[in-house]
Amino acid sequence: MSIVDQSKNHEATVYVGNIDERVTEPLMWELFLQAGPVVNVNIPKDRVTQTHQGFGFVEFITPEDAHYASKVMHLVKLFGKPIRCNRAQQDKAQELDVGANLFIGNLDPEVDEKVLQDSFSSFGPIVQARVARDTSGFSKGHGFISFETFQAADAAVEAMNGQFLMNRCISVSYALKKDGKGERHGTAAERLLASQAPKTAKSHRVVTNQPKEGGYGQHMNIMSQFQQEMDPSQYQQYDPSQYQQYYQQT
Predict the structure, then answer these.
(1) pTM to 2 decimals?
(2) Which of 25, 105, 130, 189 is the 20 to 30 A CA-CA neighbour of 42?
(3) What pLDDT, in 10s, does the model give residues 180-191?
């Protein structure tokens, strides 16, 4: 359900990518409601075909709810496709790419983003795990993993290169840079810049998968009460101010 709101809180908004064409705004609203109180859902559509373009945005009441949702909903499968979630508005320091980016080759067709992330997460915090796909959504047989630190990336290369993942011997190496000059990530210059980056840049990345105290559980209880008192026929005309007022009064 798309609600036009010029005062949209970007810091409390989650970007959702890799959405199947069958996903609707009401379905997204119901899914992300499990992570916290939803204020707005918007899946942009093509003006001509009226089909969405595979991504959308979910706005929550607080940035904390959005942060929690971006973690617990990341790689959840909808119609067989793992959705990708991250904060739509992030601190500039968080957007800094230190260069600890790896190329994973010879992937089994069954390996998806979740398998990739689970297989490499023991080496250190992962910024992103992605499987390259064709226009039909099928794996191209390779993927990419970006770590927060070069120490984690180095450990992953040393331990995983030549190992078997789902019956295939995978190759793990530093990925080529996007400038097309043939240089790979992991250079001395990148490592020097990463070592000089402010340590506070990553402090906000420390995340727990446990609901914040008094937050998620409380939101779900209040939202459940709100939904029970709300006529289902009113969902399409849902006004976020209705829940905000109800939440503040409860």
Answers:
(1) 0.51
(2) 130
(3) 678 899 888 888
